[in-house]
Design a protein that fits this description.
Blueprint: H1 2-12, H2 33-44, H3 47-61, H4 65-89, H5 96-103, H6 106-138, H7 142-150, H8 164-179, H9 181-206, H10 235-250, H11 266-295, H12 303-306, H13 310-317, H14 322-343, H15 345-355, H16 374-390, H17 393-419, H18 429-434, H19 436-454, H20 458-462, H21 473-501, H22 509-530, H23 548-562, H24 566-590, H25 592-605
Helix pairs in contact: 2-9, 2-11, 2-14, 3-10, 3-11, 4-10, 4-11, 4-17, 4-23, 5-6, 5-17, 6-8, 6-14, 6-15, 6-16, 6-17, 6-24, 8-16, 9-11, 9-14, 10-17, 13-14, 15-16, 17-23, 17-24, 21-22, 21-23
């Protein structure tokens, strides 16, 4: 029992960040708000416009891909606001990994960090693959045809041929990242500007060739396997499945949160940059997908017809072939910045995890001249390049979404926990017991309020009517339990919604009563959490309408996760098994927090 108790404590130990040392870093603080905004836009605005919009429209959503992008944008905005608060609260490299380490505990932090590695590796690989397809489309598919003929790969789940061009593109940008951060962001800012100009050109030029009948095709006008026609040919379920895939197009803004140790003023720059980048990216995606589906019927935008480059094909179809070259330039610049944005955070997450000792410490080595984590950058670039060469874009996109959605969910949970906590409750309980002298003044300060809560009924504790200025240890524990309960109810609620989504016609009274009962429990739980005392700590940015926005973010994230395929979940489970093996055989024993606890016990014993 003692071993089990200590083991659980090890999983829950939290990272402590000294506020007086928070600005210290071995990385180069050189990025402005403009640099971060360009980095966020550039990393997000790429594959979604030039590849994903046409693919989702043809396979799952039809013209309703515009709504799919809108729903995915809402999910991203909710998550983005939570990231922005944590960027202001914990401006350190590592993004959601550090945030969850500070609030939830080491084990969940490792899970999030490992998911972020998956997100950025697959993001890099899929963008590189899309980049290669676009370059190949400019030479009429010659490279692909030759590789398919001379070097075919007949393995299920892998690409039909090894894409050496994708590997070369990835490795070239890896070398650029090794050279230095400022040089990389200059390249990104210029290419992002070109990309936005091309997006503006597509929307304006495409508006002269739109046909609203393409949003209202009859069933007789579409092929047999292309749905029922109309604006939503694959139904509500198809539109929501499209939203789960379109969510992938918004992945990338969280690269801003990984620059906490390289931004000049992270508490101000990170929140502003996240909000700005998401706004610009949504407007671009919505405009492009609307014009694209109005210019060309959705069922003609399949990969087989467009050769992996649907947007240039659309303009060629309406008799404007010169636009193909303009769009291709925008595609190459957009995919370049998207690739850079996918690659940029990966070595920084590895650096952060290695600095904490939860993965191999060699990944934390910083080059004294370039001030970049060279080993982490090189290894991650080679790994991502290899995946780009061997896997197809479709096989990668959904798997990437799971890790990202889970990371976004944990950030939302962490926002709720911190907003309803206080400083005492954030201190490691195990060490807290041994340092009684330091904590006595703080304990006595809140002792009376804690006793007051202890003497009240459970109903009074849940629906708190006291106007306390600061949360106490007692209310913090109540709030944390409520957050965990709400999370569980949301999972059940979303699972039921997805299960019943295709059965709305045969929805029975019993099913309706169950859904209604769960919804009522959820509403009362949220009201109870909203009435709990909160932290009075002031930040440069705070999520508005807490707890509503973080809970809405969790609701959308869980829903989109349940919309992904079983095969995707199996692949994700394999990835997690590899990561957990690393943690339990290495990370849990070499963690900095484990050493800190041991030193604290030794000092208190002496």
């Amino acid at each position: 029992m003692i071993f089990l108790r200590n083991f659980i404590k090890s999983l829950l130990r939290r990272k402590r960040i000294d506020s007086s040392q928070i600005s210290n870093t071995r990385l180069d603080r050189c990025l402005t708000t403009l640099d971060l905004s360009a980095l966020g836009i550039g990393s997000t605005l790429g594959l979604g416009i030039y590849v994903l919009a046409g693919d989702v429209a043809s396979r799952t959503s039809g013209p309703a891909v515009t709504i799919s992008f809108f729903i995915a944008a809402i999910a991203s905005v909710f998550a983005g606001l939570c990231y922005a608060e944590f960027g202001a609260r914990v401006p350190k490299a590592g993004s959601a990994y550090v945030y969850s380490y500070v609030t939830v505990g080491e084990f969940m932090a490792f899970v999030i960090g490992w998911n972020l590695v998956l997100e950025y590796v697959i993001g890099t690989a899929s963008v590189a693959r899309g980049y290669s397809n676009y370059v190949d489309s400019l030479v009429n598919g010659t490279v692909q045809a030759n590789l398919r003929y001379y070097m075919p790969i007949d393995v299920p789940g892998l690409s039909a041929y090894p894409d050496f061009l994708a590997f070369l593109i990835t490795f070239s940008l890896t070398i650029m990242l090794v050279i230095g951060v400022k040089e990389s962001t200059r390249f990104n800012s210029v290419f992002t500007g070109i990309n936005l100009l091309v997006v503006l050109f597509v929307v304006i030029a495409g508006s002269f060739h739109i046909d609203f009948h393409n949003w209202n095709l009859s069933k007789d006008e579409v092929p047999e396997n292309a749905g029922k026609g109309g604006f939503m040919p694959y139904g509500f379920s198809g539109m929501m499945s499209g939203a789960a895939t379109c969510f992938y197009a918004f992945i990338g803004f969280d690269v801003i949160a990984t620059t906490g140790e390289e931004a000049k003023n992270p508490q101000r720059s990170i929140p502003i940059s996240i909000v700005l980048s998401l706004l610009f990216v949504f407007l671009a995606y919505f405009g492009i997908s609307a014009v694209q589906t109005l210019m060309l019927p959705y069922y003609l935008q399949t990969e087989e017809i467009t050769k992996g480059a649907p947007l240039p094909y659309v303009f060629e179809y309406v008799g404007w072939p010169v636009a193909k070259w303009i769009i291709s330039i925008g595609a190459l610049t957009g995919l370049s910045t998207s690739l850079l944005g996918a690659m940029f955070p990966l070595p920084r997450v590895l650096y952060s995890m290695a600095s904490d000792g939860v993965i191999f410490r060699s990944f934390a080595d910083i080059n004294p001249r370039t001030k970049t984590p060279i080993l982490a950058t090189l290894i991650s670039g080679i790994f991502a390049g290899a995946m780009a060469a061997l896997f197809d874009v479709k096989e990668l996109a959904d798997m990437m979404s799971i890790g990202t959605l889970l990371a976004y969910t944990l950030v939302s949970i962490s926002v709720l926990i911190l907003r309803f906590s206080h400083e005492i409750d954030n201190i490691d309980d195990d060490i807290n017991r041994n340092i009684t002298v330091e904590m006595k003044p703080l304990r006595s300060k809140y002792q009376n309020s804690d006793e007051k809560f202890d003497n009240r009924s459970w109903c009074a504790k849940l629906f708190n009517t006291d106007r306390m200025k600061e949360a106490s240890a007692q209310t913090s524990r109540i709030s944390t339990n409520l957050v965990m309960f709400i999370t569980t109810v949301l999972i059940i609620f979303d699972a039921l919604l997805v299960y019943l989504e295709d059965r709305l016609v045969e929805l029975e009274t019993n099913s309706f009563i169950i859904i209604l009962a769960i919804f009522i429990v959820l509403v009362f739980s949220i009201i109870s959490l909203a009435m709990q005392p909160r932290s009075t700590k002031k930040l440069s940015f705070q999520v508005p309408w807490v707890p509503l926005i973080p809970i809405l973010s969790m609701f959308v994230n869980f829903y989109l996760m349940f919309k992904l395929s079983t095969t995707t979940w199996i692949r994700f489970a394999i990835w997690m098994a590899i990561g957990l093996s690393i943690y339990f055989f290495y990370g849990i024993w070499h963690s900095n927090e484990r050493s800190r606890r041991y030193e604290a016990r030794q000092n208190s014993a002496n």
